[in-house]
Amino acid sequence: MKNLICIISCLLVITTSIHAQNKQQQISGKVVDSKTKTPLINVEVFVSGTTIGTTTNDKGEFKLNSPVVPCHIGLLHVAYQPLVLTISDNSFLNIELSKKTRNIHEVQVKAKNKRRANLRIFNKYFLYHAEKSQVKILNDSVLRFKKDEYDFHAFCNSPLIIENKHLGYQIKILIKDFHVCKKDKVGGKKISLNKFTENALFKLQAFYYYQDINTRDTIERTLIKKNRRKHYYGSLRHFLGSLYSNELGKNGFSLQSIPNSGKDAFTLTSGNDQLKRYKFMAEKVKVTYHEDFAHRPVHPEQIQGSYATWPTTFISLGHEFEIRPNGTSTNLNFEIHGSMGQRSLANTLPDNYIPESNPDFNL
């Protein structure tokens, strides 16, 4: 039996609540050294959660387009401290980066057995439900840990680099906090991390940048395309996008309120063509995704022949939540139990991934 992973908020948590504006905007600016004020070249600048990125030119300048604004942009350079900024408009940005300083406490040799134990915990939950033969952490030396009897925390001050050959991405991740704890039951109290339970809970706060792994092999490119499509259908983002567009049945989803009051599972409280806000109408909502064995969504009321179902339960925490048209959100403040919650950041698709409009499911 698979461990049950409960995710509070969203796997891809953004630490500042932001609201989408009406159109994509260009973001531009200049990056300089904080002390010398000289322009910095080859600084990576990216929109967090996407494949959208660029590097600064010989004048330290950059331009990129964000699919949503406000957004977070990250800046990475091997010799400078990483920086993340919240962008709310298209004003020209003057950005200063500080050189990395060597922290004596961070370079002290740790007890090897303790670090190995912490890495085992991190890998178990951070890589949960990943295709582990195809997913590899390339630089776990950047990770730092904090652990007591009930709570495990991991973070890094330089980007963690993960290679996911299954989905064809390399992901650079700035982890602010990766928190793991265990509970005696769903919604219950914390128990020792050393105790066995299927109710393990984790929460991630991070900024991340996807880059395609280049391959010239046609068969491999086709397989990656198929893997991405299969990964998207039935995912949390697929569900949220279907809820936003009011196409749940068409996209293979059915809902059941718990307890069953006869009311809709969710109600739309406000919205426009860029953002909609919903609230729970029940304590729990069971969401079931239906697909055929070619991994095509099947309308629950039009099922014929063999099919598979993938259940997920959402538990309300009493908060409203927002959805953008592409199925992303900044504030999914509810617990997720089941197939939609069993995907780590190392095994996700970028926010700007869009499946083909007319895919060949036989590929």
TrEMBL record:
Signal peptide per UniProt: 1-20
Gene3D superfamilies tied to this protein: Carboxypeptidase-like, regulatory domain (2.60.40.1120)
Domain of life where this protein originates: Bacteria
GO molecular function: carboxypeptidase activity
Pfam family, one: CarbopepD_reg_2
Keywords (A to Z) from UniProt: Carboxypeptidase, Hydrolase, Protease, Signal
Transmembrane feature ranges: none
Protein name in the entry: Carboxypeptidase-like protein
